Amino acid sequence: MLRLAVVTPNPVAADAIEILTMDSGAFQPCFKITPVPPAKEIARSLTAQNPAIVLLDLGDWIEAGGIAKEIQHSLPRTVIIGFRPRWDRAEQQKFEEAGILDLLPEPFSPGDIEAAAYEAIHRRYPLTHKNILAFIPAKAGGGCSTVALHVAAALAGANKKVLLVECDQRSGPLSIMLDLEKNKGLPELLQHQAEFMSPLEWRQFTAQHDGLDLLLSNPSRRGRLPSWADYYRLLLFVQKQYDYVIVDLPEVINQATAEFVRNARAVFIVSQPELPSLKLAKLRRIELESCEIPPENVNIIVNRWEKRRQPMENIEKAVDGKVFATLPNDYREVRDSMLETRLASPSSSFGKACEALAQNISGLPESPHVRPKFTLLRRLGTISTAGT
């Protein structure tokens, strides 16, 4: 969550804003400054709290301008969002010159605060990693996690630094498959400020397997539900640490996991060759495209495919599009690898196909990064708009 402080001379407004921000899972209200002391004293108090965001009352601009200047000097990484009932273009220009990244017209709702914070933070500190790859199952049980794991391992085997993030806190199987249930992982990481961790601290939360780093969920200790802010801060931290970030997602995209798919170079929907799974793969693709994910970034992978049983033209007709890759039904080798808590043999048909898939993925063209919009989260229907 993002630590948030409020600076306003109005104690009633300060209490109300604290309540509003608590309604969102993205914020941790950490400090209220009311009434307003001198600017240098405010900066000293905020330095001790180290908030990611400061909501600053702009009612008295002469005073607020001095406060904004002191905050920028003492906390250069903190994002300042101003609020007041109204302003004109000349005033807005003054606010921007003072380092205020976004403005909230009063009155505002929890969703308005979150939208302003979301766009201001992404504008100030954009995610620029070129190789985030997201894997989504068409339906549960289709082998998506197994595919993501083996593609990640194949990339790591090509001398790349690779992180595999498992995001299904309810049913994520990787810690069980690899006998890594005792390791710390995603549930524990969510209690920390990932953006500011040292490499040594980071190692406490990741597991290693065959040259691959894994950030695992664990169904036996789910922890709290993550927000988009949690995954944003995670990506901000790892984008300079790894060549590839592979994300194993549950089938339903929500406001948190949307942070991955929007910033992904490519999204892969993993389907089985059976009709229900293929039809759901088509539905998943439509859902992603309706969430502003470019169609060319969404790809279909068919797992457990047997050419003699299901012609490719039938599959592509069912998914209403081209299939990016197929993986063979190497049931015995995949089963044995799970029983022995290891990866499938690189010499097996499944291992070879995953290596070829990794090579194809590494050859995909780069997708231009587009500044994200909060409208996606609105469309996902997870942000409260009460009071708007």
Task: Describe how the helices and strands are arranged.
Elements: E1 2-7, H1 11-22, E2 27-33, H2 39-49, E3 53-57, H3 61-74, E4 79-84, H4 89-97, E5 100-105, H5 110-124, E6 132-137, H6 144-157, E7 162-166, H7 174-177, H8 186-189, H9 199-203, E8 207-209, E9 212-215, H10 228-238, E10 244-248, H11 258-263, E11 266-271, H12 275-290, E12 298-305, H13 312-319, E13 325-328, H14 331-339, H15 349-362, H16 375-379
Parallel strand pairs: 1-2, 1-3, 3-4, 4-5, 6-10, 6-11, 7-9, 7-10, 11-12, 12-13
Antiparallel strand pairs: 8-9
In short:
This protein is of the alpha/beta class. The protein has 2 domains: 2-126, 3-Layer(aba) Sandwich (Rossmann fold), CATH 3.40.50.2300; 132-368, Rossmann fold (3-Layer(aba) Sandwich).
Search tags:
Rossmann fold; 2 domains; 13 strands; 388 residues; eight-stranded mixed sheet; alpha/beta
According to DSSP, the number of beta strands is: 13
Shape: elongated
Strand content: 15-25%
Report the helical percentage.
Answer: 40-55%
Overview of this structure, please?
By secondary structure, the chain is α/β, with parallel strands linked by helices. The protein folds into two domains: 2-126, 3-Layer(aba) Sandwich (Rossmann fold), CATH 3.40.50.2300; 132-368, P-loop containing nucleotide triphosphate hydrolases (Rossmann fold), CATH 3.40.50. It contains 16 helices and 13 strands. The protein has an eight-stranded mixed β-sheet with strand order 8-9-7-10-6-11-12-13, with helices on both faces. Strand 12 (298-305), helix 13 and strand 13 form a beta-alpha-beta unit. The radius of gyration is 23 Å and the shape is elongated. The two termini are 24 Å apart. The model is unreliable at 382-388 (pLDDT under 50).
